[in-house]
Amino acid sequence: MLPDLLLPMRFPARGIRAFLAVAVLVLSAAPAMAQVNWRMTTEYPQSNISGIGLAAFADRVAARTNGFVTVTNAFDNELKINSGEMPRAALDGRIAGGDAFAGALSGLDPVLGLSTLPFLVQSIEVARAANARARPLYEKALAARGLKLLYLTIWPATGLWSDRALSGADDLPKLNLRAYDANSSAVMRAAGTNAQFLPMDKALAGLKEHQLNAFLTSGDGGAGRKLWDFLPHFTAINYAMPISIAFVRSEAFAGLPEPMQREVLAAAAETEQSQFALLAHRTAENYARMRDNGVNITEPAPPFLVAALRSAATGTIAAWEAQASPDAAAIVEWARQQ
């Protein structure tokens, strides 16, 4: 039975209209009040493979949740938060999450540096299989620090951008090189270069100031930053196929209603699949763009150069295995056998 105050015989017509107007306003405002916006960031341009993923994820989330969850993206390090700083920024509430280069997160847990270990993965298929094995370990490492893994992006193979052609190991000591994580910095120093682990923004500043004359990064990372303006040579050493990891603060994800959580995870899974599909043609597209801009691509790399780098890598891989969990080390052993 309706309460007395809603019965027409107890309420003047004008009062009923006023009540209904208020009710409509309250009901129409409720969805807007419940909407959630996540601010997410990446160090890389929107045209880069990480930027493409973040933009696609935002579109899918909005569509799947019918606008209940929206994502506002900041590209190209607009927020001045590099990959290594993103976990703390998320926990502090400055961002909800982001897409971070995994190697820069290895200080949280060694497993997050697995994809940047040198010369273990030499094909897209092995990279995908290795990361499928490692994904539960990535999730656990992030969850222990209050972060929820959303999706992975596998990057094209890492090569060496330089201001000169590289023909062998004797050229390495001439390089003031930007490495992209602690592992690669150690390997490149062992090979004889003057290597530094630098976030992309600091590395670009060093390049423009002529403090650097080489970059360890993929064609994707280099093309997005137009490294050809300074480094017209690219040597395809196939150093690694690293990943970036998109994540959000666990508290922000848990605060969503369960149906919305499912839709967000579905959007993340779709993004991971589309990122993998993108990878199949990404290297060829990057190389075409690089050649159009005057880059000399050496593929395959000179055998003596690769041999020197492989030899320099052994100590770094052994040190990583000593720190990593048995489950993580088992993935490395599996990759060696492929």
List keywords for this structure.
338 residues; alpha/beta; D-Maltodextrin-Binding Protein, domain 2; 2 domains; six-stranded mixed β-sheet; five-stranded mixed β-sheet; 11 strands
Characterize the structure shown.
It is a single chain. By secondary structure, this protein is of the alpha/beta class. The chain folds into 2 domains: 35-157 and 242-288, D-Maltodextrin-Binding Protein, domain 2; 158-240 and 292-336, D-Maltodextrin-Binding Protein, domain 2 (3-Layer(aba) Sandwich), CATH 3.40.190.170. The chain has 11 helices and 11 strands. Helix 2 (49-64) runs antiparallel to helix 9 and helix 4 packs antiparallel against helix 11. The longest helix has 35 residues, at 258-292. The protein is globular and about 60 Å long.
CATH superfamily of the largest domain: Bacterial extracellular solute-binding protein, family 7
Largest sheet: 6 strands, mixed
Apparent shape: globular
Cα distance, first to last residue? 72 Å
Domains, number = 2
Please provide the ordered H/E string of secondary-structure elements. Answer: HEHEHEHEEEHEHEHEEHHEHH
The overall average pLDDT, rounded, is 90
The gyration radius over C-alpha positions equals 25 Å
Number of strands: 11
- Largest sheet: spatial strand order: 7-6-8-5-9-11
Oligomer: single chain
CATH architecture grouping of the largest domain: 3-Layer(aba) Sandwich
